[in-house]
Amino acid sequence: MVGSEKKSLVFAYYVTGHGFGHATRVVEVVRHLIQAGHEVHVVTGAPDYVYTTEIQLPRLFIRKVLLDCGAVQADALTVDRLASLEKYIQTAVLPRDSILAAEVEWLKSIKADLVVSDVVPVACRAATDAGIRAVCCTNFSWDFIYADYVMAAGYHNRSIIWQIAEDYSHCEFVIRLPGYCPMPAFRDVIDVPLVVRRLHKTREQVRKELGILDSQKVLIYNFGGQPAGWKLKKEYLPEGWICLVCGASEDQEVPSNFVKLPKDFYTPDAITASDVMLGKIGYGTTSEALAYKVPLVFVRRDYFNEEPFLRNMIEHYQAGVEMIRRDLLTGHWAPYIQRAVALKPSYDGGVNGGEVAARLLQDTALGQYHASHGLSGARRLGDAIVLGYQLQRIIGKDIAIPAWYSLAQNELSSRTQLPNKEVVDNSSLTKENDYFAILHGDHQGLPDTLGFLKSLAEIQSSCSPQNNNKFQTREHLAAAAMFNWEEEIFVSRAPGRLDVMGGIADYSGSLVLQMPTREACHVAIQRNHPSKQKLWKHAQARQPKDGRTAVLQIVSFGSELGNRGPTFDMDLSDFVEDGQPITYEKAYNYFARDPAQKWAAYVAGTILVLMTELGIRFEDSISILVSSGVPEGKGVSSSAAIEVASMTAVAAAHGLNIDPRHLALLCQKVENHVVGAPCGVMDQMASTCGEADKLLAMVCQPAEVLGLVDIPPTIQFWGIDSGIRHSVGGSDYKSVRVGAFMGRKIIKSAASVELRSSLSNISSAQQINGFNPDEADEDSKDLLEMEASLDYLCNLSPHRYEASYATRLPESLSGQEFVEKYLDHDDSVTTIDKERNYAVRAPTRHPVYENFRVKAFKALLSAAPSNDQLSALGELMYQCHFSYSACGLGSNGTDRLVSLVQEMQHSKSSKFEGGTLFGAKITGGGSGGTVCVIGRNCLRSNEQLIEIQQRYKSATGFLPYVFEGSSPGAAKFGHLQIRLRS
Q1: Least crowded by CB within 10 Å, which of 124, 290, 465, 809?
Q2: Distance separating alpha carbons of residues 876 and 888, to the nearest angstrom
Q3: Residues 58 and 133 in one domain
Q4: Taking a C-beta distance cutoff of 8 angstroms, is the pair 93, 111 a contact?
Q5: From CA 61, how far away is CA 613, in angstroms rounded?
Q6: Over the stretch 866-898, which tens digit does the pLDDT of each residue have?
Q7: Residue 583 structural domain
Q8: Does the keyword ATP-binding feature in the UniProt annotation (predicted)?
Q9: How confident is the model at residue 645 (pLDDT cuts 50, 70, 90)?
Q10: How far apart (Å, rounded) are the C-alpha atoms in residues 536 and 95?
């Protein structure tokens, strides 16, 4: 590194307390700084030897302080999101003031010229308070990582994200490493090549030292934190291979074809001496696999949110093969190793990122300015940026995205029906009969269905030897390999739904009004006799030697946009125990054990529910391709669309005739019992029974369809995505549901007490005066009897609620107090946490009034068209929105969108035009997601929606997606039965 003739500088280098990966890359940067004659103080929680084995110079100072905790792992492959947040609170939030004071004093004491952070948030703020410039050097930032954890824990933790982002904003710029995640808190970035540890020995030297022949194939098992109690077995490796084991404990026994490396063995040297590496994806592992061109067989880590971006990079350079967790633990390694050794890694970029980063840091410390706008990072991120900038991000919004970053998503979007606002030109699509003969059904001219058929044809064509597209997505290749293209395939379609009115009142029995969206999920399914089923290599390895058994294989298009595996497979016998279907509880645990593949419960769960509820037995193997254009986490029921499309396809392929209402109820069982989300039934009913340009009116007791309500031609509904990810399985939704059921139990109890008192008084009066009760007394008794046996909260009228029960309900109640007094809340899909405090009054009040609002809304839709009609409809939506907020299910993003609609509605131009937009409300389970807007069906309304989009983007940095239009439900669409044309 040039610059040793310049003055000696003092660097304070903060290293995050998350594994050794950060420390190993910091070593490379620090080594170059020290070689240039500078002094480096490393603030770290990692052991000294990580640094001292590579840097043996007097200018290195190590200060053992842990200022953050990174991600806490429940096991070697799973991040514990809630524990991570809790530990961060204890480590960095509660003692923040004392940490800041101590770090400012220490930085001044060493007279630091520059603070470098990888990627400790508080270090950036401490630098500013000490009057020192700060730079980050990283491939991810904790505000992005923790945002997903906050969604799991509840938005009340969002202040953690705000504080982290604000700390980072004090950085001058970020030195961004390849494989980077979105880092919205930094506006100024400088990209550098891979930061990779240097080699000490050649491949030949290491093999000679370990006694490995040149002809031998070597796997290096570089897997920190091995599963407890797990033993390596000889048969795990292909014939003739040996395995080098890193980090093995002293008492761990290994077979003869495994070799334990000494603890101080230098890992990069062992990697370059190997033919394939097996491990977890992290920056260090990925960079070394690419730099030394060693294919990596990797196992996905659950909730490790930087992984998708590193994975995209390593797969782009043809250096990675994913192994499912089940095959890691059961030893089915050989198919993956053999596939990996055939790869030819193609990375040809720089590997001198340590040197480049060190030079940038030196120049900055000497007074040069690399940032374009100084301290221009966002001072405080709102909900929409933080929670919206998740893996379901808007494609192509980053500036100068490298090829490895954008490729998978661009390829994916060309093959899946991702939502967009472009009008699909049917003439640009080759007609379906050029690809497939449609033996049954009608595509109904739906552009997304035509597109899906085209994508199936593209998948099939990739099997051709003439196809040399090396950059196909994993799901594309997996789908091509599982279908027998000469056989029949069944295709189903189910839309998402826009919750116009009703929302969370569905589980309390309310009337709801739901509109199926234009966006939908398609499922292609094929069944084959096990002997004819095309199996993936790792699924083949599980088959018994004496014959084939039925296997379920699923491919999910869109996995690159979320932290989940693209494929799932299981033996259908896993659903059977002692000749009977396994319990829903066992099924839930089966899928929950591997969160990266938990998504498969929405699809595979339909098979178990059909087995359990209808007694269906599945003897054939099943291949399923799921391609959903319903955006995830937006509150438009992406999960119901997947469940309904999957069950419709399974039913069609097996000749089952299931009534649409019954099918929707069966799909609800999938979500409630197999997935474990406590949703009502309106989502599945709307996706199944809805029709285009109509609202499905349904009373959720449990699912009585009243009919379809025509949307007047003068009225239009839109959905606007807030960018804040919604989850019906989230803790806030669950707690509100629990509070509502607590309220119902309290009302029933109060009515019972009053009824007993009333009967006692009547009996006493009869004995004393000998009179008979009048009709008023009888009516009062009947009313109290009904309320004492209240089956649904929505059967209680608002006036009775206010007259008799509103003041009897507590604002909130602890789970312990409730259980002690009432035993149970009588809800089969949620449980009470005795340690938690639950809001009761607002969650109880909401469905009582919401049912009344929905009834009024439905009646108003049939009124004569007028501004008064639209104003009244809009007012009902506003009331619903603010009732959600009172329950604790609001969010800054959705509130902002509703406020923008209000501003537009009451603007002078709208009043002059007679009004265009009239109301808006949060939808579905709340806590983010989509806002439903009502307005006049005219061009000006659409112009105002575009203006709202732009205002929202200006305020939050997020351009919201607009849902517009509708499409037929699954029952109206039916299914297609297709066969590939010759």
Answers
A1: 465
A2: 19
A3: yes
A4: no
A5: 66
A6: 999 999 999 999 999 999 999 999 888 899 999
A7: 473-711
A8: yes
A9: very high
A10: 52
